[in-house]
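## retry 2 of 3
previous attempt timed out at serialization; input unchanged, resubmitting
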Amino acid sequence: MVVACSDSRVDPTMIFSAEPGELFVLRNVANLVPPYQPDSAFHSTSAALEFAVRVLEVQDLIVMGHAMCGGIRLLLEGASDPTGDFLLPWMRIAEPAKHRVLQRTPADPQGECEREAIKLSLDHLLTFPWISDRVAEGRQRLTGTMFDIRSGVLARMQSNGAFAPV
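## retry succeeded, writing output
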């Protein structure tokens, strides 16, 4: 399963050279995974995760972010137009990533925040008990990747949190 951004420049099937049916793809703004929160609200991302993991028994979960993400830019810069019904509340999921980046004052806050959002989504995956149990048992693998749409380079998150080209 690949959780990817809804940005049309980032097509997981093309990036991974996959044939139809080889990937379970979930796309949303900024490739975010919310924390586990079972309630009566609508949770399309969580529902897709549950279907992939509990019904299809997908073993590999990949969160794939990308360079020049408009959702992350919105998170960092705010919105000048009325996008408050769904988009701004959705992007609040990534507030912890934004705060971690802004505490460091990096040269490239956009790129750093894109990578931190991937790490945050991976952390959120572990809040789902049926994912964390499978990870602990060695039946589920979580991977963070970053696609640079400018260069075409796909990087994978290493155990130290750094991203290295695949």
